[in-house]
């Protein structure tokens, strides 16, 4: 193993010397080595070999590059490795860009302590990490690739991260890394479990179009009245997709899939914004007028805590047994349905809009706060509508 590493380092050092000489001839700096070449060409390459060797042998047996004689480059030029070391400051790099055995041992012990606290068998993980580096068996199926990588990154930081590793509080960093490893391992097991169906995957536009055609659609519309947060809107799009809502209407400052804030919206929507139909109106009044004209049989339900509000479970929602059809990309609406109106995070549904609605519903509050986040309200009400319609008990449902 030592001979293999020595040969690899010889090859890298010889090749790099020639590259620097060639670069020097073509620059006005003469024999001066560019700073980027020093930090990236030699240290990033040769020290990777040194780190690789350190995994299998004690640090005291590290090869001294000064013992190397000249090496032959494929172009026939000789590179004086000893002079090359001095010119690029490899001796200082050797000292500054590798952890000592005691430093590495301290970080390992700190990480193992934190792993045991979060419920991970540190010794089993260490064995899995060792197997991933010393055998061809691949990554342990219980922990997964990402968790093993996080462990190795903490114990064997890259050369560019050595200074940061030395300056940080190792115990605090170990606690953070242990929680990250715990999350990554759990995510891996969840993805690998065939009986778990909650995993969302990235799909292409063709698959999204097909999914849109295949969605089971109920005569439900969500109207967002000047909602401020793109993340709330994205979450509501996910709820709309999951509940079979036919459309999400945005108004005013509300971020929309085709307008401002679409990047943040799409991030929290996880592609649901590409599946659910949407329209945007300048004002909420315009949106209400559109619904009353195009869907006169739909009942407008405002979600707001007022003296006029009724509990959301006591309202009868029209549309039971009806479905929205999609034909060649166009929605075919039934004669009855529900529009759920959700307002701004601060002042709620506009007080000038509330009188235009058919009902005002509220979710009972039993705590000190007088409201829920709208992204939390949406699924509560939409699934209550589906419950009243009897669709949660349908054989076609995946629930």
Give an account of the 3D structure.
Helix content is 48%, strand content 12%. By secondary structure, the protein is of the alpha/beta class. The longest helix has 24 residues, at 2-25.
Rg from Cα: 31 Å
Helix/strand/pairing category: alpha/beta
Residue fraction in strands:
5-15%
Q: Supply the number of helical segments.
A: 14
Helicity level, as a percent range? Answer: 40-55%
Give start-end ranges of low-pLDDT stretches: 11-82, 84-96
**First-residue to last-residue Cα separation:** 56 Å
Q: What's this entry about, in short?
A:
By secondary structure, this protein is an alpha/beta fold. The protein has 14 helices and 11 strands.
Key terms:
about 50% helix, about 400 residues, two-stranded antiparallel ribbon, alpha/beta, seven-stranded parallel beta sheet
Secondary-structure map:
Layout: H1 2-25, H2 35-56, E1 71-72, E2 78-79, H3 81-88, H4 90-96, H5 101-117, H6 122-134, H7 145-155, H8 162-167, H9 170-192, H10 205-214, E3 218-225, H11 230-243, E4 245-251, H12 262-269, E5 277-281, H13 284-294, E6 298-303, E7 310-311, E8 325-327, E9 330-332, E10 337-342, E11 359-362, H14 374-389
Parallel strand pairs: 3-4, 3-10, 4-5, 6-10, 6-11, 7-11
Antiparallel strand pairs: 1-2, 8-9
Helix pairs in contact: 1-2, 5-9, 6-7, 7-9, 11-12, 11-14
């Amino acid at each position: 193993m030592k001979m293999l590493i020595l040969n690899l380092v010889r090859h890298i050092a010889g090749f790099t010397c020639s590259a620097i000489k060639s670069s020097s001839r073509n620059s006005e700096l003469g024999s001066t080595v560019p700073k980027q070449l020093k930090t990236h060409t030699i240290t990033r390459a040769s020290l990777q070999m040194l780190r690789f060797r350190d995994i299998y042998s004690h640090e005291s047996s590290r090869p001294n590059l000064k013992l190397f004689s000249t090496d032959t480059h494929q172009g026939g030029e000789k590179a004086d490795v000893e002079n090359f070391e001095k010119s690029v400051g490899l001796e200082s790099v050797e000292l500054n860009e590798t952890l000592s055995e005691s430093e590495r041992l301290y970080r390992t012990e700190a990480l193992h302590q934190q792993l045991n606290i979060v419920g991970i068998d540190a010794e089993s993980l260490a064995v899995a990490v060792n197997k991933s580096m010393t055998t061809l068996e691949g990554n342990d199926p219980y922990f997964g690739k990402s968790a093993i990588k996080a462990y190795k990154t903490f114990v064997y930081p890259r050369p560019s991260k050595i200074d940061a590793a030395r300056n940080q509080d190792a115990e605090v960093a170990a606690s953070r890394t242990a929680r990250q490893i715990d999350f990554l391992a759990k995510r891996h097991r969840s993805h690998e479990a065939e009986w778990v169906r909650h995993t969302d995957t990235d799909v292409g536009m063709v698959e999204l179009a097909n999914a849109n055609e295949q969605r089971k659609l109920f005569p439900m519309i969500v109207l967002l009245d000047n909602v401020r947060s793109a993340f709330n809107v994205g979450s509501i799009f996910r709820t709309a997709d999951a509940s079979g809502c036919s459309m999400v209407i945005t108004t005013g400052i509300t971020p929309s899939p085709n307008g401002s804030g679409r990047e943040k919206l799409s991030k929290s929507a996880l592609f649901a914004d590409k599946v659910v139909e949407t329209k945007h109106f300048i004002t909420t009044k315009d949106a209400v007028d559109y619904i009353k004209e195009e869907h006169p049989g739909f009942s407008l339900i405002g979600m707001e805590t007022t003296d006029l509000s009724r509990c959301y479970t006591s309202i009868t929602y029209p549309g039971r047994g009806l479905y929205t059809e999609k034909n060649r990309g166009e929605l075919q609406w039934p004669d009855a349905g529900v529009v759920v109106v959700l307002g701004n995070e601060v002042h709620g549904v506009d007080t000038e809009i509330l009188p235009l609605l058919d009902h005002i519903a509220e979710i009972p509050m039993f705590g000190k706060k007088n409201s829920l986040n709208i992204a939390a309200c949406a699924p509560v009400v939409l699934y209550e509508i589906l419950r009243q319609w009897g669709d949660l008990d349908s054989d076609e449902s995946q629930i």
